[in-house]
Amino acid sequence: MEIATITDGEFGENCYVVADNGCLYVIDPGVDYDGIKAAIDKCQLPVKYVFLTHGHYDHTFSVKNFDKSIIYAHADEKGLLNDAAQNLSEFTGTPFSINGINYYSGGRYMIDGIEITHTPGHTAGCVVIKMGNSLFSGDTLFYDTVGRTDLPSGDPKILQKSLKLFDSFDKSLNVYPGHGAPFVLGDAYKINYFLKKNNK
User: Fold this and answer.
1) N or C terminus of the chain: which is more exposed, having fewer CB within 10 Å?
2) Can you give the pLDDT at residue 92?
3) Among 177, 80, 158, which Cα is nearest to 119's?
4) How far apart are CA 68 and CA 63, in angstroms?
5) CB within 8 A of 135, min separation 6: which ones?
6) How would you label 158-184 residue by residue, b for 16+ Cβ within 10 Å and e otherwise?
7) pLDDT, tens digit, for every residue of 73-123?
8) CATH number of the domain where residue 75 is located
């Protein structure tokens, strides 16, 4: 598996372009579409799926550049994706909504061996995506903190419950967050107050 990280200079959002077994996946196509396209072109593979960990503007700005038939998000994120005020694009001068994509539901969803886990709290439809030994955590989990819960559909109590789900993951997983540097999941348990709080 090869993972290219494209970090935009405005929000520090990480988009990931993942090449695995001859397939190409894009996770959270954010503001820097030129960088994303360059990473895709370098792989010389067609994009099979685009996955959204959640619907905030900084993670979805470049969705318009992809065929909607290959884009996937959790059904609980539909209201946010369809509303420029909730996805925060209304406040950037370029409001948009996202319609016509594929929605799945439930706590766990599998597609072609890729495991997607619903982790609400930062938003109602947040997910983390496991590919092999890599976990793409969006804005649910960072190395030393978690995603904020004071934005539309956020809920701190629900997020605290979602963090319990990380206990079921192999602690050797390499975690690729929506912002910041990658880390090993077990290392976050040593320093992240929110994970440690859950394990008292």
Assistant:
1) C
2) 85
3) 158
4) 8
5) 128, 129, 169, 173, 174, 175, 176, 185
6) bbeebbebbeebeeebebbbbeeebbe
7) 999 999 999 999 999 989 888 899 999 999 999 999 999 999 999 999 999
8) 3.60.15.10
Counting the structural domains of the chain, the total is: 1
Strand 174-177 to 183-184 pairing: antiparallel
Dist. CA 18–CA 42, nearest whole Å? 12
pLDDT reported for residue 91: 84
Amino acid at 45: L
Question: pTM of the prediction?
Answer: 0.95
CB 79 within 8 A of CB 124: yes
Q: What are phi and psi of 37, to 5 degrees?
A: -65, -40
Expressed as residue numbers, the domain containing 130 is 2-198
